[in-house]
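Q: Hand in one record:
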Amino acid sequence: MYADPIVASGGFVAHVGPIERLGSRAFGLVLEPHHLNFAGRFHGGMMLTLVRTACGEVARDEALRARSGVMAELLSLDCSFVSAALEGAQVRAEVDITRLTRTVAFLSTRVHAGDQVLATASSSFKIGVRQGGAPGPAGPEEPTTEGWSPMVTREPFAQRVAPVHERQDGAATKRAGFRVTPDRLDAHGRGVLHEGMSLFVADVFCGRAAVAASGSHCVTLGMQARRFGDAPAGSWVEFEPRVRHVAPSVVFVDGSFTVQDRIWLEVSSVWKVLGAT
């Protein structure tokens, strides 16, 4: 086992890891206490971070092999959660290239702990030379006014990536807000938020919305993400979940991430209602 310097250094992945590279298309994570949810199981936000990191690294490597001076940026991610893992589990993410063109990479990822499949995912990445530009708006200096308050949580992983703020705007669901700080950045020097941080926030706040809508505990069945832009370093990001449909056994929750009202990432999620028949 060896630690790839890109995966192991800097930004969000270094803060929540360590994620190590086991081969050209394989990545490993030994579950530590800070990777878990309140029930002591692999947190969905960390699972999504592992998937995003693994497929992103492979897409970037394959693109650079074909053409120098390019980078891979997430377009879409669709992850299905199959089962859970506990502290100490040796988790492995294996990536396959479905198709690679000059401008887009299509990948599939399988996450497992031994013979136990934890998740499967498909993703697509845009391949090209990144265009420079001025950073986006930074937002308010202190998001503690007008109803914002720190999110209170018992989850070890959520405590690891805190602070995240929340606000009730009269709707049934709460909005989330957080600053793009250095420990939340992509590790490749792009100066933008790593999508793993956003997917963690989506997992937490969509889950809370599903619980409120169903009146029961819920677990993640799937999460889809579609990326339209970036959240630059220093910016203030907000997330608003929306309950799309409530059925006896499942709840559908969507949501949008914005920087000063500009949508840059959207998610759709499906939640299983525990105890439902």
